[in-house]
Amino acid sequence: MLGAVLAGAVAALGQPVGAGLLLVPALGLRAPGHLPGAPGPGRWARLALHLPAALTLGGAALLGALLAGGGAPILLSAVLTPWAALGVRSALGESAGDPAVAAHLQYAAAMAPGVVGALLGGFGEAGLAPLALLALGWVMLVG
Predict the structure, then answer these.
(1) Would you state the pLDDT for residue 33?
(2) Which helix (H) or strand (E) holds 56?
C-alpha cells in the first residue's frame, strides 16, 4: 500500500514512469486468480477479480497525489494507474511457470501506465492521460 501512496505522489510530481516503478510490489495485492493450467476466467469474472485491488490501490495513489498537491487530471490519472497496471498484468498472464518470467511480466505491467502517461505528456496531450488509462484498463480486463 505504501508503494501505491508513493506512486501517486511521484505521479503528481510529474514522473509517471517512476510511479510505475513504485507500483511493482503493490501489484501483488489482489484476489487469487485461477489455478495454473485451468481455463482462464471470463471477461466479467476477470473484472470482478481485479476491481477490489484496483479500487484499493487507486485510493492509496489518490491519497499520495493529494498530499503532493496534484491537479484534477493528475488526481484522476493517479486513481486510474493501478487499474491500468492490473489490467495489463491480467492480459500478459498471471501464472507464468518460470519465476523470472513472472517478475518481468509484473514489471512490464507496472510500467505500462507510466509509459502511456509519458508518451501523452511528450506529445503535449497530458490531459488525455486519464482517458487513456481508463481505456487501457478496460480493454485489458474486459475487452
Answers:
(1) 54
(2) helix 43-68
**Closest C-alpha to 22, from 141, 140, 117, 106:** 106
Cell 500478459, residue located? 92
> pTM for the complete prediction?
0.82
What's the CA gap between 126 and 132, in Å, rounded? Answer: 10
**Collapsed DSSP state (helix, strand, coil) of residue 137:** helix
Q: Let me know if 16 is exposed, middle or buried by CB neighbors in 10 A (0-12, 13-18, 19+).
A: buried
| pLDDT band, residue 39 (cuts 50/70/90) | low
pLDDT of residue 96: 67
Segment holding 114, helix H or strand E? helix 99-122
* Residue 12: C-alpha distances to residues 35, 67, 112 (Å): 37, 9, 17
Distance CA 52, CA 96 (A): 23
